[in-house]
What does this fold into?
Amino acid sequence: MIENSDVSDAVQAVQDVKEVKDVVISVNDLRKVYRIGTEKVVALNKINLSIYRGEICCILGTSGSGKSTLLNMMAGLEKPTKGSILIKGKAIDQMSEKHLAKFRQKHIGFIFQSYNLLSALTALENVAMPLIFRRIKKVKREKIAKKYLKLVGLSDRYKHKPNQMSGGQQQRVGIARAFVGAPEIIFADEPTGNLDTKTSIEVMHIMWKMAREKMQTIVIVTHDPEVALYADKVVHIRDGDIQSVEQRSVDDVYEKFIKPYEENYVPV
Amino acid sequence: MSSIDLALMGIKNLFRRKARTVLTVLGVIIGTASIVVMVSLGLGMNKAFEQQLSEYGSLTMIDIYANQYRMEPVGGSSSDGQVVLDDSTIDTIEALDHVEFVIGFKRFESKIYVGKYESYTNIKAVDFDKLAQMDIKLSEGILPSKDGNNEVLFGFYAKQNFYDPKSRNPYGNPPVIDVFNDKIEMLPTSMYFEGKRPKGFIINPTGITSETDYNYSWDIFMDYDTFLRLKEDYDRKNKTTSNDGNTGKGRNNKTPENKYDEMKVSVSDIKYVQDVQDQIKAMGFEAYSLTDALENMKQTSGLIQTVLGGIGAVSLFVAAIGITNTMVMSIYERTKEIGVMKVIGAQLKDIKRLFLFEAAMIGLIGGIFGIGISYGISVLINSVLSGMNGSSGYYGPQLLSDIPLWLSLSGMGFSTFIGLVAGYYPAVRATKLSALEAIRTE
It folds into this structure.
């Protein structure tokens, strides 16, 4: 677990960065239209959004609001109909599949609603997976993976297969896997969608602290306002348009949610 | 992704789907085994040919036959008539490079009497000094010499030709002739005698040829000069002119007569045989060597091998389709897994290599077991079929199926290659899967 003093340092750092407006993700006039048969469905109308380094950004909306589409396009999984997305200054909508794969490997982590762990592999192997693709040797990558499993509180579950773990545990493995390569940006698609409230809070807590430690940016897509409580930027999206952007102080979030949780922390 | 990790992951994936992997591998095993066994039969045939040919005679021998049935002499130097087989021909050919010696044979029809039995057996007249240079296998005794008293070399089967002319069933009960101890009388004629027959000459066999050497197992060999002396003596006594049309010296004929009707040329090494043979042919003779037959047989067996291999190839082709099918199924099953891997950092080439590796492994494993089974089948074929004609057969134990090392190695290589080819389409397909679609699949 991370020391409190580290966290407040991190909070300070985030604020410093925000002063110089270090934009990590920049979405410009983004439009996405799906064709279903002869009908056109506008998923995203005209989205403009900037996400800064170290920010925890929550995209909040009901189902069908276009929030998942936005996330998929930011992660390069879908191509926009119009507009562009710059990540670290690179237009990822222009990239080829091959370059996207390389880019994702280097800069992006992903957390899924249904965890998407490889069922044949143990927790340790699942977490080490992204490092395999980076050609890191087995001994080294297992050491790193163990470190991250410890960070998510699963130091006693290395050898467990996904089907031997609870949903909360599986999602924590998923989080460790997303963070293991120390990417600058982590996308989370309804990370608490399959979890109960108590586990959801735990998962959000872990994500918050891990991201803060290394100044990583998290983009969370959710329909759950409680998840949004942990974000310092909340983007309300509805029918393909941004309704409002709520900005909060990181200190507020820390004081209100993280600190009280830690004080009453009982390991599950 | 490093190769070791890739290999481990691929093997793990194959293991996860044991039943399907085993079934697909089984297809490759059958394909590889059938192709290898088929080719091995072809190779075994080749070996058997060579073995058989070496029983027919030495591969370094060229046979020349008198072209007595030829109307027009061929070759450029035919102005002064037909070429003949006589001692001057022997000298000419012996003067050629790489020729060790030349030996001439002349066949004479004759009758052999042993007690009440008789037989029409050819006498082959030959220079005994030269015969000694030939590598003739004997089953009993020694080679005859010129200096002995009417010494002859008995062919292994020549002793089986005897029959009793007075018997009602002359050929029903072949007598056992003791070649070395029975009194053997020879008449240098094939005439049939009703009642009393003229007196012949006593011949003394010193050896019997080997039963496996067909060139020397049917006739009785006698020294040329000795035989001519006996024949002239016989003709004078019985006042018969040579009416068999097959006599040695044609004093009355104007054209030169063949002293021999068959000549054998021994060449120092098999690689010169063709060359020497061509030179002899250029002189206008009919020359044959077993290398001709060997070439023919090799061509035939090459054709058979191609056909057999083709049959095997069909089953390997079916196996290849099986691999493709398995890999495509595997992609459907692992759509989500592939998508997740893509999103968490797998490169396109990692995914492609992973699928290619799995397909190649199916090929390789199938190849290895296929070769193992081929060896088993090969041993089975050889033991069953050589048991059928082996001990009693004239050919000795034959190899019907032969799997040399190169065949087993290339069999494995080929099946792996087939696996790669079969896996290429599924692998490319896997890389083209949209990561998004893959993740969405629930």
Observations:
- The two ends of chain B are 27 Å apart (CA to CA).
- The first helix of chain B runs from residue 3 to 16.
- Residues 3-56+296-440 of chain B form one domain.
